[in-house]
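Hi,

Apologies if this is the wrong queue. I'm a grad student, and the batch job for Transcriptional regulator from Pedobacter petrophilus produced an output file that my downstream script rejects. I'm not sure whether the problem is my script or the file. Here is the sequence I used:
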Amino acid sequence: MICIITGDIVGSRKLKDSWLADLKSALKLVSRQNSKWEIYRGDSFQVEVEPENAIKTAAYLKACIRINKPADVRMGIGVGAIKSKRKKLSESDGDAFVNSGAAFDSLKQAKVNLAIKTDFPDFDEEINIMIRLALIAMDSWGIVAAEMVKLALEHENLLQSELAAISGRTQSSVSEALKRAHYSELIDMDRLFRKKLNQILTK
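Support response: The file is valid. Your script probably expects a header line. Output copied below for reference.
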């Protein structure tokens, strides 16, 4: 089982190009420098990650793009098997790729920026409800909130006081930004997603 995230940048033609460098850096980080990512057609991308990291990765990529407000990102998460693996992700094949494409194609009709598809419809229904609720907060991230979410996800073991030192902000402003971003709820959702995913994959 692998996870493929397919995405594109919303309204990229109207934006400055600063988001592109941030996207490349983010894709390198989440794929752990193993080149399992690709940017194509200028503003579309695919990245392979471990299935359990799907939600956290999507949140991180969104934070990296939201720093360049008003930029935003649409993503379809697909979890499944892989049939054939080629050098280019876009030329590889398997259920993970099909599911990712289907999740991405469903976004416009559902009027959301993030969705998941696996081979387990009941699981998908439950997780997509959680995602839609999470997007109420995530779609509202301002630049500072997005910066703090990005930093917190990059340094998950650090205290808020240490994040403040890195960012050059006060601890209270870091705390306020993470609270505004509903970061703790996002981490709770990620934890629940991992638990439920593990349950269906080990049945």
